[in-house]
Write a structure and sequence with these properties.
Helix content of chain A: 10-25%
Number of domains of chain A: 1
Largest sheet of chain A: 6 strands, antiparallel
Oligomer: homotetramer
Radius of gyration of chain A: 16 Å
CATH topology of chain A: Thiol Ester Dehydrase, Chain A
Low-confidence stretches of chain A: none
CATH architecture of chain A: Roll
Number of helices of chain A: 3
Number of strands of chain A: 8
Mean pLDDT of chain A: 94
Strand content of chain A: 35-45%
CATH superfamily of chain A: Hotdog Thioesterase
Structural class of chain A: alpha+beta
Largest interface: A-B, 43 and 43 residues
CATH class of chain A: Alpha Beta
Shape of chain A: elongated
């Protein structure tokens, strides 16, 4: 084996953290939205986002698209945790309560199913009072490639 | 009738234009995303958005949340055309092809059904080459209230 | 008050049971599919269905429509528990694993949200080995009317 | 080439017809529901189904699951037209109007997108008066295998 193909083996919790760091570094979109990665673990991610004045729509509520964006980011971190490059193939969101300027939204994403190349992830979006603002379900599709070349899960 | 309840009656095409103008004025979110309202008509809206560098995710593609946001805005303009205050109750998006920095996305939303308080709207999102980037379906819910107080449709 | 408007007040668990009994009696569809109501409670229902040979599609798997039908029935029992007439406005299903002839499917539905006239319910569909076969999410809409005239919840 | 690998090449319209015939023959579920294949073509299928008394739910309407089942069958015929074995990965249905006993429902499915292994198909479900009863969107996934071994599309 050449040095180029040397593999580093790490445990799941460490893998989730390193993949999240690698994704975050290049995720201009989530950064520009003011998101924070609050917690990551295998098959799990929790992100927060304060609602700014430039996020309000014509009804003076947080644009539903930005609530979706937060949920979609939490989904991305949850489904890319194992260093297998994974993209969203679709997503559905239920808008349950409006979010206002100054609210801090939290999206908590968890894996519900993963088999072969496809997965299903649920995210709940709550505000700072714990009220449910939206429910999200995303479908993932794993494509060839790694987020961090050479990194893989240690066999348990 | 008092002056407060004076009603102005206009034709549908004019109504769609005036409701879109009223919504756009307060829609900081769509403005901040660099969207343009390209065309509005009864039950129909077409909006465009160039993909900027601050819209890219960790995979160097336009964050799916912003594609959803564009679609959701086109849906909002299509379902609020008649001055009845209408919000999104849910939305589903299929991501079909990635969008890159510099692409100009167009979302074209059309009413598929409206009965009572609820409606279904479809939007197709294409890039500047006409490639289909995503398909969106939104469910709307009409709440009490008007976008422009006192404005209503002329009887045909 | 006249006799016609006499109201009977019962506790939630009893209400869920009586509404389920009333619905089941008239639900020819769920009966013809061989479903069983295994358990009902406020905001919750669990139904089972064996996969028969006349439920197989051209790929020799249980037709996805029948898996949806089981999930949709569990959703109907969960969202009609309180004697307020409630219908499905939409439903989404993720097919995760095939079901075969002789499998016994169980759908477990739970309320995730209810506000005003609308609600969101999730159902998980598993087989007799506990494998996840499908995930369902339904949106409900409450219309005027009662399942059992005159029956209402006792104030707690 | 051995006889086993002999390939027959046919034009698209013929392929759609032969794949539909092969699927229909084994589709006990669609047959038991009283469906009829009205028309098939590449990326397209139209099926009908009369609403029978054993299809009614506890609200005396056609069970939504059976409307989904009809839509799902039309989707299956539309996405398997080219002899590449294709299954549903998910489906979403919007229920717009009730269907009653004696109504004849028609589901018309069309391909909206297909790339690699995945596709998106839309179906509209109408009754005998042309009223829109439901809208369906399905996501397909192509797996290894052929419906009719050895049959392929002639190059155009």
């Amino acid at each position: 084996m050449s040095e180029q193909t040397a593999r580093e083996r790490i445990v799941p919790a460490e893998m989730a953290r390193r993949c999240a760091d690698a994704m975050w570094q290049d995720d201009c979109a989530s950064q520009a939205m003011g998101m924070q990665v609050e917690e990551v673990a295998p098959r799990y991610a929790r992100l927060s986002m304060p609602v700014r004045s430039d996020m309000l729509n014509g009804h003076a509520n947080c644009h539903g698209g930005f609530i979706f964006t937060l949920a979609d980011s939490s989904f991305a971190f949850a489904c890319n945790w194992s260093n297998r490059l994974t993209v969203a193939s679709s997503g559905t969101i239920e808008f349950l309560a409006p979010a206002r300027e100054g609210d801090v939204l939290t999206a908590t994403a968890e894996e519900r199913s993963r088999a072969g190349r496809t997965g299903v992830y649920d995210a709940a979006i709550t505000n700072q009072r714990g009220d449910l603002v939206a429910l999200f379900r995303g479908r993932s599709y794993t494509v060839p490639g790694e987020l961090i070349p050479g990194l893989e899960l240690a066999e348990s």
